[in-house]
Amino acid sequence: MSPVLSVRDLRVAFRTGGGLARVVNGVDFDVEPGETLAIVGESGSGKSVTSLAVLGLLPQAVTEVHGSAVFDGDELIGRSEEHLRRVRGAGIGMVFQDPMTSLNPVLTVGRQIAEALQAHEKASDRAVRTRAAELLGEVGIPDPQGRLRAYPHQLSGGMRQRVMIAIALAGNPQVLIADEATTALDVTVQAQILELIERLQGEHGMAVVWITHDLGVVAGIADHVIVMYAGRCVEEAAVDDLYSRPSHPYTRGLLSSLPLLDDPRSARERDPLTTMPGLPPDPVALPEGCAFYPRCVYRLDDRCKTEVPPLAPVAAAAENHRAATFYRIDAADEPEGQR
Amino acid sequence: MTQGDVLVRAKSLEVHFPLPAPGPFRSSPGAVRAVDGVDLEIFRGETLGLVGESGCGKSTLGNALLRLVEPTGGAVEFDGTDVTGMPARELRALRRRTAMVFQDPFASLDPRFTVGESIGEPLVIHGLHRGRERRRARVSELMEIVGLNPDLRNRYPHEFSGGQRQRVGIARALAGEPDFIVCDEPIASLDVSVQAQVVNLLVRLQRELGLTYLFVSHDLAAVRQVADRVAVMYLGRVVEIGDGVAVGDEPQHPYTEALVSAVPVPVPERERVRERIVLQGDIPSPTNPPSGCRFRTRCPRVFEPGPDHDPVLQPVGSRQEAACHLHGVTG
């Protein structure tokens, strides 16, 4: 099967007063039809900027974008706004973190869904209304007919996020990009949204790109995972391989720093959490070699400081599990993430 | 930690925020019942975790225990003294023994103060370590305790990362040598790799200084890491409270059960097979909570006709209490 979205050597830099901020520094990934790809990283890792660059949503005046993003056989980087507008929605749908700021507060929910529907095909007002109500029903909003007349502030956070999903689905996209789509929600509401997206994915057969910092959510929903640090993909693997054999020191550090809800020991019996020293680098002044070098507990002094490690298979037998590190965790060394 | 030595106690505590009247000559349409009848004990030297979702009243409860908001009913006792009606003068002495660590270290520090001034301010207010030099020495000591280089004392908050700012906030909280600290979502706005540092710091300080914490958080996994006991709030009430392990592993209230099941565990083979209880609908408005049990409208184990009063906390097993009609006798 050929990938529905294929990104190669994507680079994004912002011109700032302090110099050029290199936020994405050569990212490659493929999204296969119907799969869930998770892009994991902390603030400033470049995970959101990657998706915004693919969709041409970054402010052109201050942004430099290089590389390639091919959607359904069609190059997106450098294309006209008109062309991209057709792709957004109809080809690739998006859901953002905060539904209150992505919805228009002065338009009814029905009007906003109708806009999304009419952007992609001509239809009578009546047909559009019917379809909008159908979509609201599909995303699990009770009384969809009545809710068409509601304004965003009249809905709860979870309901607003469902409306955003309905809008994203209006164009029947092949790929849905969910950028921290459940981060602002409470866990019980997050559980509702995760279940909804899983169901819709099954029904529509769309691929989902899930951008998040939450390794718990990723464990439950992803097929493949990309871990980003300082604008690069530092590790890439099938979800089980990543968690059972994290091979980049950053991934290992992240996984072992998480408190576990289902650890049966009491708080007093537990060991302190494993911590990673330091902070991610400033994108205006990236280190010469590996960007993780200053924080790395496994660093090999000369090489790591001067040379950027390429993303390479972690073992001969694991072609699809790749990490960008010179340090190789040998098989005998059980990863700390395996607890 | 000996149970029985109660440092902080809430008795039928209520905090209602009246809604503004819709116009002149019209009456207020009611009140937001943020905290609506909470009985709670916090033992000296323990960490009580307080969990619940947005709007459940957990932050308001934390504020009310420190009298940062005035309770509209019930009482708060601190170290055996009722502080609810305490006049401002006496309250000031009490304030030194309590402190708060806030969620957002970007908003809780004055941008025009150097971090040294921020940390030293409580010393000035409470008249501790009088004199420039003595105060300076104490500020350095506080910065070292929280893992900050005292040479950074003359820097401003914007020069610090989120994690460092949170350390400044913690140093400031420790300045008056408090007994009791309310940590209100202290790691919620930090990045994953920094959260662990702050969690470890808070735990270490508690053990070393014998502090008592109320650790307010929506993150149940973090709460399990730090809290000896856990209280779960829903719509202004505590619905379950008890030993951290018991509440986390064998929840006795259907809401706790749903909450625990909804927290994703970062281990794929466990996360995929965990049974997730997906609650229907949204949290009802705290202005007009449902009659009878407040969780009735979303409870997967609701039975009809349920008793028409709200269940009270009662012991279930030896390690926890739950407020649920499923546990037989009700008050």
What does the model show?
The complex is a heterodimer of chains A (339) and B (331). With 339 residues, chain A is of the alpha/beta class. Chain A has a domain at 5-227: P-loop containing nucleotide triphosphate hydrolases (Rossmann fold), CATH 3.40.50.300. Chain A has helices at 47-54, 81-90, 99-102, 109-120, 125-138, 144-147, 157-169, 187-204, 215-221, 239-244, 249-256, 301-306, and strands spanning 5-16, 19-31, 36-40, 63-71, 74-75, 92-95, 175-179, 207-212, 224-229, 232-238, 312-313, 322-323. In chain A, strands 6-7-8-3-9-10-12-11 form an eight-stranded mixed β-sheet, with helices on both faces. In chain A, strands 2-1-4-5 form a four-stranded antiparallel β-sheet. In chain A, helix 7 runs parallel beside helix 8 (187-204). The longest helix of chain A has 18 residues, at 187-204. In chain A, 47% of the residues are buried. The mean pLDDT of chain B is 92. Chain B has helices at residues 58-65, 88-96, 115-126, 132-145, 162-174, 192-209, 220-226, 244-249, 254-262, 268-273, and strands at 6-18, 31-43, 47-51, 73-78, 81-82, 98-101, 180-184, 212-217, 229-234, 237-243, 314-316, 320-322. With 331 residues, chain B is α/β, with parallel strands linked by helices. The two termini of chain B are 30 Å apart. Chain B has ten helices and twelve strands. In chain B, strand 4 and strand 5 form a beta hairpin. Chain B has a domain at 109-172. Chains A and B meet through helix 7, helix 8, helix 9, helix 10 and helix 11 of A and helix 6, helix 7, helix 8, helix 9 and helix 10 of B.
What is the mean pLDDT of chain A?
90
Proportion of residues in β-strands of chain B: 15-25%
Q: Which series of helices and strands of chain A comes N to C?
A: EEEHEEHEHHHHHEHEHEEHHHEE
If you consult CATH, what is the topology of the domain at 5-227 in chain A? Rossmann fold
